[in-house]
Every structure is written in C-alpha cells, then in structure tokens.
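Fill-in record for AraC family transcriptional regulator.
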Amino acid sequence: MKQALRKDLETTLGSFLVKDLTEPHFDPNWHFHPHYQLFLVEQGIGTRFIGDSIKPFGPGDLVMLGPDLPHLWRSDKPYFDPNSGLTTRGLVVYFTDDCLGTGFFDRPEMHRVRLLLDGSRRGLSWSGATHDKAVQALRELVAQPPTFRRVLSLLSLLDELSLTSDTELITSATYTNPMKPADADESSASSQAYRRMQAVHTYVLTHFHEPIRLETVADLAGLSPSSFCRYFKARTNKTFVDFVSEVRIGHACKLLINSSLTITDVCYDSGFRTLSNFNRQFRDVTGQTPSQYLRSMQSV
C-alpha cells in the first residue's frame, strides 16, 4: 500500500496535536503536512532531511518546521531489523495557523511569535541554554492533559523560542519549497512524480555504502538520466551527486563520533572508494577534514 505523501493530523481532543512517539524506527517516508511542527528526538540516531538540508540526528535534536516543508527523519539501518531490540522515541507538537482562532497569531501582541512562525518555513533549530529550556518545556507540555494550561504552555514555549538569538535556519538561503497545493492530490502528476522521489530517497539511503549508478536511480524515477538530474536539482536545490555525497558524509560523521573505527575504515564504510576523495568531499560538506571534525566533537 502506498504511503500518503501529505499527512492528515487532525485531532478532536484539543486545539493542537501532541504525541509521544515510540516506535522501532521513525517514519521512513519523505513527506509534508499543513501544520507547524515542533519535534524532539529523545531516542534514536539516523539522518535528518529537511528541505535541502541533510544532517545526522541523535537524542536532543530539536527543530521547528513550517507548513508543507518536506522532511524525513531516517533511522539508521539497524532500526529496521525486527530482531535488533532498538527503539526510537520522539516528542512532537503539531498546530496550525488558526488552531486558536482565525488571525490569532497576527495580533500585535504576537508579533515576535509571528516572526518565529514565518522563520520556521525554512526550518529552525536551537542550541545552548535556549535548547535546554525548550526541551524541558516540551517534555512538560507533552505530559499535560488537553486543558487550558496546555494551551498556555504552548504559547509560553513559542514565546521563549521567539525571544532568543541562538536560532539556526536549517535550509539554505536559496532554498525554495517545491511543494504546491496540487501535490496533496494523489492523482496529480506532481504528486506522482514526488512519490518517485521517495523511491529515490529510499534507494540511496539503503545502498549508499555501495557504488550508485545514475541510470539505476533514474529508472526508479521513470526518467532518463539527464531528465532525472534536472528534476532532482529543481526539487532539492542540489545535484544528485551532491545529495549522495551528503548522505555518505552524514553517515561518516556519526561513525567518527560514535565508533572506534579509523578514518580509513569510516571512509570505506561510508561508500567512498578512495581516501583522498573522502577527505575532499568531507571538507566540502563540513568545512573541516575528518580529523579536524573528530577533534572538534571530542572537545565539546
């Protein structure tokens, strides 16, 4: 059965939806929805895709996404093994612009929160003291019943996030969200084409350790290699080659931090054929060599 590209997240229990998600792995489908989303990873590791951004994720990863921004938290391969005993857990809040009434977030008193909501259309993350306070506030909010106090807790959390300066935009400055209203229609050509992109994502995330032939991936999308390259660039704001490289580098970053493998072993385990190419692409993506990156992570 095909997974819906656009998620329906309606609730009759309150003005917004709060979930404590505990599953063997996070939803593996590249998707979008018309809600704002606050999401905290409590347990699990993998690769996070938001718009044109590809980053490793782990416990403590906290982001806010605006409506219709395509995203995916792809758990690492061991989480898909039914015998692994591994579990992921995330806390999430979904809400809409009109969850508290039409025009509520456009009132003068909500000006800074409105700026926060507008900024979330490129994806937002936080660090430092703001991150720690927001994580605690989100945990408390998720534990509350759907009462007026929970509404106040959400507004207080949004206010806290709107007042800080240690906010990082997730997507690039040149990113343009490719999602259109027609993409919500499963029968539309754009929706069908975007579902083909899901197949491409799944293939790359499953086979990035191996050589990946452009012809194979283009065939998955039902396009010629040249047409696929143009389509992929228009949809993701990056070339397919860059996408594969970033997926491999994201995996390499996790191995450098969480394993005792040598840099050479990390190179080959991440799908690179030569150490020189690995070092060059690692520096292109992260701005550091693998050894510099490892030292910087060990000093945190």
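KEY FINDING: The radius of gyration is 20 Å.
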